[in-house]
């Protein structure tokens, strides 16, 4: 999905914080449930991207990320797109409470096929999910960074 979007860089400081905090996060209650929702959101976002379903994408992503997605869509073109997620694992690396929002760093890895005739390829990504306290809209994808 969104090969150019995957190449966007998150500040090294944010990634370093996520990796340093990984041990503490594993002991927080509710992590398995959170990760189940994160995996489902990953699949929903892939399907919405394939369909070019902007209403669904708007529910799953922040406004700045939607702007990036629109640019990627313009490059991709309106033709059909099909992404198969063959294997998906998620790990919560960090959960931070900021003044206005909670931010979760989730590492996704697995196997994905981005066209029907292509071989499955491994992927590894860091997703930043944000939950703005005042908005009460739940978690939305704010950033994606390829890790490998």
Topology:
Layout: H1 3-6, H2 12-20, H3 22-25, H4 31-51, H5 54-60, H6 63-76, E1 84-97, E2 101-113, E3 121-132, E4 140-146
Antiparallel strand pairs: 1-2, 2-3, 3-4
Helix pairs in contact: 4-5
Q: Average pLDDT value?
A: 82
Report how far apart the termini are. 15 Å
By DSSP (H or I, 4+ residues per run), the number of helices equals 6
* Uncertain runs: 2-24
CATH topology: Nuclear Transport Factor 2, Chain: A
**Overall tally of domains:** 1
Whole-angstrom Rg = 15 Å
Q: Strand sequence of the main sheet, in spatial order?
A: 1-2-3-4
Write a compact overview of the structure shown:
It is built from six helices and four strands, in the order H-H-H-H-H-H-E-E-E-E. With 148 residues, it is α+β, with helices and mostly antiparallel strands.
């Amino acid at each position: 999905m969104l090969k150019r979007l995957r190449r966007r860089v998150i500040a090294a400081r944010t990634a370093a914080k996520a990796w340093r905090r990984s041990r503490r996060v594993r002991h927080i209650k509710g992590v398995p449930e959170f990760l189940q929702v994160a995996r489902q959101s990953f699949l929903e976002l892939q399907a919405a991207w394939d369909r070019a379903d902007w209403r669904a994408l708007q529910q799953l992503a922040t406004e700045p990320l939607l702007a990036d997605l629109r640019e990627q869509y313009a490059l991709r073109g309106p033709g059909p797109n099909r992404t198969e997620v063959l294997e998906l694992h998620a790990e919560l690396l960090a959960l931070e409470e900021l003044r206005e929002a909670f931010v979760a760093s989730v590492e996704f890895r697995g196997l994905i096929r981005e066209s029907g005739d292509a071989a499955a390829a491994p992927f590894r990504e860091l997703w930043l999910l944000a939950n703005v306290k005042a908005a009460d809209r739940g978690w939305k994808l704010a950033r994606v960074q390829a890790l490998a």
